[in-house]
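Example 272.
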Amino acid sequence: MTSPTITLANGVKMPQLGYGVFRMKEYNEAYEATLAALETGYRAIDTAAIYGNEEAVGQAIKDSGVAREELFITTKVWNDDQGYDTTLRAFDVSLQKLGLDYVDLYLTHWPKPQLVDTYKAIEHLYEQKLVRVPGVSNHHQHHLEQVLAVANVAPMVNQIECHPSLSQDALRAFCAEKNIAVTSWAPLGTGITFTHPIIKQLAAKYGKTPAQIVLRWHIELGNIAIPKSANRERMAENLHIFDFELGTDEIATITALNTFHRTGSDPDNFNF
Ligand code: NAD
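Predicted structure in complex with nicotinamide-adenine-dinucleotide:
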C-alpha cells in the first residue's frame, strides 16, 4: 500500500502518510529503517539536522533505487543555526549530507526569536528552487502571524505535535484558514492511543489496530502524519490505513479525547 497525496498551497503534492526518523542517531539503524520504509512503500521521509542521520537517510534513498521525483524529503534547520545567513549555511550542510540537489520541504524546527529571519532564508531557498515547499514547525498562531506579516510566500506546512491527547483544534483551524497544511508529529502520541476503550472499540469494529485507527483519524482530519517505527511489520501496519473510513461522529469522538497533554515541549516554553 502507498499513501495518497495532498496538494499544498503551491500545487506540490505531498504524501499524507510519511515516515519519521527521530531518535535514530546510529548510522546503521537510520539507514536500515529508511531503506525498509522505502521498500514498504513510504515515499515521504521526515528528518532534521539535529537527528544526526541525514547522511544515513541520504544513502538509503540512493540505495533504494526509488526515483528522486517520487520521493518527498523533509529536513529542518536546528535552533543553533537560526538567523538568515546561518540558515542558508545550515541548509547547504543538510543538502550535502543528504546527497540531494534539493529538498522537498524545509522547516524552521522550533520558533526562536530569530524565526522571521530564519523563515526569510527558507523563502529565499524556495525562490532559488532548492526547496519545493517552505514551511515551519512547532509554530503557534502568534509565531505564524509574525511570519505571515513579512512573508512574500506564506509557509505551506506547519509541523506540530498532534494526537488524540492534543488535538490542536484552534491551531488546525487557523492553519486551514491560511491554507497551511498541518503535519502531525508524534501522531500516535500517548498511551491512550493503545489503551482508550473508544479507540479499542473502533479497532474491533473495523478489524484494525488502535494505531491504525488513530492514524486514520489524522488522515480524515486532513493532516499529514509521520509515524515512526523501526519495526517492519509496524511500518506496514501504519501505512495500511487507506482501505477504510471512520464516520464523522467517530472522528469527532476521537477529537474530543483531547486533554491538552503534550509528549514534547510547549513551543512557548522551551529552552534548547
Ligand atoms: P510516534 O507517534 O510516531 O511514535 C510513538 C511510539 O509508537 C514509538 O515509540 C513507536 O515505536 C511506537 N509505534 C509506532 N507504530 C506503532 C504501532 N503500529 N503499534 C504500536 N506502537 C507503535 O512518535 P515520534 O516518533 O515521536 O514522532 C514521529 C516523527 O515525528 C519523528 O520520527 C520525527 O520525524 C517527527 N518529530 C518531529 C518533531 C518536531 O519538533 N518537529 C518532534 C518529534 C518528532
